[in-house]
């Protein structure tokens, strides 16, 4: 079988140049393009859909790597991402994170993807390093690892988290609990930092016994709220790492017969569609998740279209407090 | 490049046997498996995805066609389906249904998929016909179209729906409303039929003014419950086409200040994880959705492995009533 390496040898160029030339990349001179096309024709090199995947590296498939497909956050992310990619001529291939970074990287690299949207939570993962070393383009979604630069979309959490925390303080809360996200997630540590620094302006802290740490999931919120509310001196408010965690906390409060916000206030982050359900009415921090998901898709396609030479883009989506019914004054 | 045919020659087996052996299929004896693995190792055969696509016509990608990615039903379907496929060496590629059947079929056929899991709702779609005519294997998930036979997994809804309806009658409900699913969905029409025929045994009907028809979504349940509950003579119970519809109905009831089940009972179908939330406590009909999703994945892989000659398999998952807190006796 003729490969792009054969074409490269005959044309006297590198294999990546063959890829670029056959993709009509503007980075390749007209002369080189012609030479490559002649070599390809002479060798009978056919860039079939699958053949092209092997030879010039285009499959029009983009992987999405998530931590947990059953998490509502991803439900509301996948749909707009899928639609945006589809309208740009790309398919979305799902991948979930395993504990072993190496195996995930191998899967992503062996699966003939053009690029990967990284929506996993860990900032300490070696995955970005491995993807960069193997030349696989990727976009950070709602996260960023400092070790490797790449295009990114993130929430500008400061304004919304500060607004939320100031409202908590203004209502008179001083016994503040928190169900925090994973310690190695940039989003979680960022939100925690803003919460703590804003509370500190009023001399308020989240004491260790009122800080529960876990995943960004329902089970964490449920277990965390149980733990915090069953203490002798429970918090008057529980700040949750995100909405899904808050759903868990709200359900734990219901199960324990605690009124929200009468006995305890509970807040979220993300403003997912369920947050506005009349049955939940969650006070939370909002940003435009759909727009962010669509933007990640278009940054990915831009990167694939214009190549690795372009400067990286880091886009931020502003956040703000959305007041509903789960945050009120403390009852004690 | 070493292909599976080379491995087959060296091992003295057929090429399909190589595929099966390397996937650890139970249909291959331990001895054959070892012989094939030795041959593969000796030849340095690397089953890269794209290489496999070219050499044996396999991409190891399976499409999943759904109606609405943001629907919680699909959230809880995609995760187990993805995991089952991954463990069998396949990737899941997402597709959503557009209004134009022809375009969907073209997309599915042009995208180098090995097969498609059809989880869309319409039974009157031409899609199965087009897929069959072009030789694309597919499995019906939670639906079936009579025009074209294929492997299928479905809920055996009769037992659960009958149990639910009998319980509704036993509690004394006679003014029964329903938020029904799409008229062209086999699941919806089947559940409606069982509801009506079981009610008929007690001389009870769902009158036209208490039957609201729409999609399998939150908005339908919300709008439907508003419509039914704002009537002069509202129903004492609203039977919803599925859990997601029931979430919408429960939220409409809350918004209208109606107690559930005091003022109105509300029931679902599917028993999704949210149904057991202390805040919802939805009485519903349960079946093993995860097992059904995994089974669809393995039927798909079996079909791809053993070819079109095998007889079609139709698997049914039993259903039963799960009583929680949203169904009680009528207050009038």
UniProtKB/TrEMBL annotation, chains A, B:
Residues 2-56 form the HTH lacI-type domain. Keywords: DNA-binding, Transcription, Transcription regulation. PROSITE patterns: HTH_LACI_2 (PS50932). SMART domains: HTH_LACI (SM00354). Pfam families: LacI (PF00356), Peripla_BP_3 (PF13377). One of its GO terms (molecular function) is transcription cis-regulatory region binding. It comes from the Bacteria. Gene3D superfamilies: 3.40.50.2300, lambda repressor-like DNA-binding domains. This is LacI family transcriptional regulator. The lineage of its organism: Bacteria, Bacillati, Actinomycetota, Actinomycetes, Propionibacteriales.
């Amino acid at each position: 079988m003729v490969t792009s390496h054969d074409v490269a040898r005959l044309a006297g160029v590198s294999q990546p140049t063959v890829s670029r030339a056959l993709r009509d990349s503007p980075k390749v001179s007209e002369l080189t393009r012609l030479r490559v096309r002649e070599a390809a024709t002479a060798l009978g090199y056919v860039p079939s859909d699958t053949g092209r995947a092997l030879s010039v590296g285009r499959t029009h498939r983009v992987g999405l790597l998530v931590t947990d497909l059953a998490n509502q956050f991803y439900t509301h992310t996948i749909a707009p991402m899928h639609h945006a990619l589809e309208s740009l001529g790309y398919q979305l291939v799902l991948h979930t994170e395993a504990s072993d970074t190496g195996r995930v990287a191998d899967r992503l690299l062996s699966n003939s993807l053009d690029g990967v949207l990284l929506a996993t939570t860990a900032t300490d993962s070696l995955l970005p390093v491995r993807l960069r070393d193997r030349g696989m383009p990727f976009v950070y979604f709602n996260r960023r690892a400092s070790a490797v630069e790449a295009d990114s979309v993130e929430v500008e959490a400061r304004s919304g988290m500060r607004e939320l925390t100031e409202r908590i303080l203004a209502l008179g809360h001083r016994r503040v609990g928190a169900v925090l996200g994973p310690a190695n997630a940039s989003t979680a540590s960022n939100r925690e930092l803003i919460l703590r620094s804003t509370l500190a302006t009023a001399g308020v802290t989240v004491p260790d016994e009122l800080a529960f740490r876990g995943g960004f999931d329902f089970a964490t919120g449920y277990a965390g709220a149980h733990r915090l509310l069953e203490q002798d001196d429970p918090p008057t408010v529980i700040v949750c790492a995100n909405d899904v965690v808050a759903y868990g906390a709200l359900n734990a409060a219901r199960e324990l017969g605690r009124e929200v916000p009468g006995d305890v206030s509970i807040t979220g982050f993300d403003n997912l569609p369920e947050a506005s359900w009349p049955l939940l009415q969650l006070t939370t921090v909002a940003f435009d998740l759909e727009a962010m998901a669509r933007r990640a898709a278009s940054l990915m396609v831009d990167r694939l279209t214009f190549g690795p030479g372009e400067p990286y883009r880091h886009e931020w989506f502003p956040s703000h407090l959305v007041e509903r019914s789960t945050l009120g004054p403390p009852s004690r």
